[in-house]
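Summary for the steering committee. One of the milestones for this cycle was to obtain a three-dimensional model of the protein with guanosine-5'-monophosphate bound, which we needed before selecting residues for the alanine scan. The sequence and ligand used are listed below.
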Amino acid sequence: MKLLEERIRRDGEVREEGAVLKLDSFLNHQMDVELFNEMGKEFFRLFGDEGVTKLLTIEASGIGIACIAGQYFNVPVLFAKKSRSKNIDPDVYSAPVVSFTHGGVNEVMVSKRFLERGDRVLLIDDFLANGAALDGLISIVEQAGATVVGAGVCVEKAFQSGGVRLRGRGVRVEALARIAAMNETGIQFC
Ligand code: 5GP
């Protein structure tokens, strides 16, 4: 998606010797809702004929994008929680997810009330790196006996392992921007 690539080139900051891309000015902290709207529309163009009944993302950065996309799909938007607050039902599907940005493991969970056997679930997230977040979400959908129709991510760092591995497992992964390589002097798209 040209619009997203241009924005990444303009505002992205490459960190951690080319491993991490900081997009705080429009995606991960301040949010550009107009751009989110274009991304939501694009996810619908890609997956709109898949009979999606629910969008599933993971807190926190996926939530804004999934909400906007949800308006195009006209289905409920669900997010996996990273901590067991007093508000969550005791009866949950859960999976461990290694955090790419913090290194620790979060037990992510979704209340059993909100996923059903017949659901056709589209996963949404901001970034795909090694695929741990999507692995966790896929596990949760499978525990519910529901179907993963695919994963829509805004940015795939194609030089990290998640995309190849998930596609190898047969998951349809669509990324709106795919980065082949990046360092402090520039970003190369696939
Ligand atoms: P994965 O689980 O695929 O290894 O990493 C994906 C998750 O880690 C995403 O939910 C995202 O929040 C975070 N993440 C991974 N790489 C980056 C990055 O380069 N920049 C930012 N801002 N977040 C990232």
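Key point for the committee: The radius of gyration is 16 Å.
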